[in-house]
Amino acid sequence: MGHARSAVPADDRGYLPFMAGGIGAGVGVGFVLAAYVPFAAAGLLGRREDVPFLVQAHGAAQLQGWAGLFVAGMAFRLAPRLAGRRPVDARLSWATFALLASGAAGRVVGQSVPGLEQLCLPAGIAAALGMLLTVAVLGWYLLRTRRPGAWTLGFAAGAAWWAWWAAATSRSGMQLAERRYLLFPEHDPVLWTVMLGAIGNFVWAVQSRSVPTFFGRGQPSIRRFALPWAALNVGLVVVALQVFEPLRSARAEGSGLALAAAGMAGLAVMVGAFHARAHRLRPRARPAARYVAAADWCALGAAAALLWAGVHTAAAGVYADPGLRDAARHLFGVGTITMLIVGVAQLIAPIFALGRAEPRPPGLADHAAFWGLAGAAALRALVGVLTPWVAYDHRMALAGLAGVLAWYGIARFAWLALDAYRNEARMLELLARGAAH
Ligand code: HEM
Question: Domain span at residue 328?
């Protein structure tokens, strides 16, 4: 058994702690708060007065923990392959993981538990250092790549947004240590730039390489990719400037969001997949393709909601459509980021590939996980869209329900990952035996 496990090169396993940490943050904190916080906001359980702090802790657990750890792990795994260079040094990978994970954990605990807010300061510094290490590692591969392509643009912009995220995280660590809460005008632009810039650029870069392979299409050239990519990132720079008080303007923020949304829609159409017929995949891997298609439909929905809110805000000159913005945030967060993590991880993480060596059609629990996540994305978006018409308490009760559905989908994914990890040695033996016959 020990022999079979060692057949996988040690450096190939660097993504595992990131994946385990991301799943732990999602199942243990981010999606638990996604259900608890709205139920508490609706007065159905817990304490209403905790809600403002826990909402921000939920956002941090999802962005820094669930999405951030996954993106860093997958970027560390893919950058060397795409660049045609050797894998990331295991010590560097572990150090980055330790800083990012402890930073995310400290931030969430410090903001959630009254009296522990001082923890947010060291947590902000740890997370920022981890983010800067991520930037340095990705920068190294980008400068030394032998195979530039559309992916290089996405990775470069993504890495630049991680540097911005590092600055924002250390600053918010200081603010949280003082008052346990981040003020909206500074905090909201950071949330958009992190979600659509630091995470979003990798979403499109990775799809620009993997979707054509899975679905049998040509890869987009750098030139074609560049236009929507520039719209996304220039729009986000305008949004980022809203952090600075003298530059703050609703017209500029709205225009920035609209431009970023248009770029996102362009990228989704260019590199995404909108049907689940992935004929290049082995039959065992095909069920994962429907996650990719659902993720891209949700990205289009998010782009449409954000475009509307952005244009409206720019035209009116005042902050507009909070409900549509919330719908866009969660269509992208639950629909695109989460569905892609679950789908793409099953397609490209080697432990799942090994699991597919053994034929087992998706069971009821797998279908329920997919529909649970798809239903959660739709329901959570509806909660935002209904803002002008339905009372807050009722909307929060619906959001809590969406949180429970999403939690199930993620818990099932966590179970599959654990199962694949435990079966890895047996699968390698099976494969070796198959190859010998
Ligand atoms: C179905 C699952 C989810 C539910 C039910 C849920 C629920 C909520 C609720 C009720 C809020 C507060 C909204 C407000 O006060 O306007 C919120 C905020 C937020 N959520 Fe979610 N959420 C879910 C999944 C996600 C995911 C997967 C992500 C990211 C990957 C995410 C990121 C955020 C962010 C960034 C905020 C804003 C936090 C802040 O203001 O600091 N959520 N969510």
Answer: 2-436
